[in-house]
User: Fold this.
Amino acid sequence: MFFLAELENTVRIPPELFHLDLREAVEEELNKVLANKVLITAGLGIALHDITDIGESFIKPGEGSTYTKVKFRYIMFRPSVEEIITGKIKSVSREGIHVTLGFFDEIFIPPKYIPHPSRYSEDDQAWIWEYVTGDGKKHDLYIESDDDIRFRVIKEKFLDMTPGLNGEVPEISDTENLKASYSIKASINEQALGLLDWWSD
Assistant:
């Protein structure tokens, strides 16, 4: 689910950070730009792990900032397809189930990946799995907001809103308006998946 991405970039250090040690200033800028940002084909940036190399700094004509080439490792979130994860239901609707991990909300379970037979109840604002017991009786199992849920990742999608980046980490000055998105499609239509309460015994 989490991995270290080896990246390199040219970091812009504004004059107001010149009082800091260079490494400290670089760390601050990298986290400011990459934390909670999506990098195409890499995933969601979580936090800087370490800096492996700091190159020479230079100044562009007409600017007061310095630019430094750095190589670093960044903690990224990108679960693999088929990975099983536990999260919390953020909301339910006729369209499906939205799940959150706290730091990442773009997880969606469509109706066809909810156990069958199921139905959506407008009155209860819940999905209801019509579970058939061993004696043939039906038992309604409710899927509601705030429930803890275990799901399987079945597909991921990157949407690049900044053409031309080609999956590479852009220069710091170019990432301020980075609005690429990353979403996950999931399933709970398997044994031991779904609400944790279903399988607690």
Observations:
- Residues 59 and 66 are 5 Å apart (CA to CA).
- The chain has a mean pLDDT of 87.
- The radius of gyration is 22 Å.
- The chain has one helix and 13 strands.
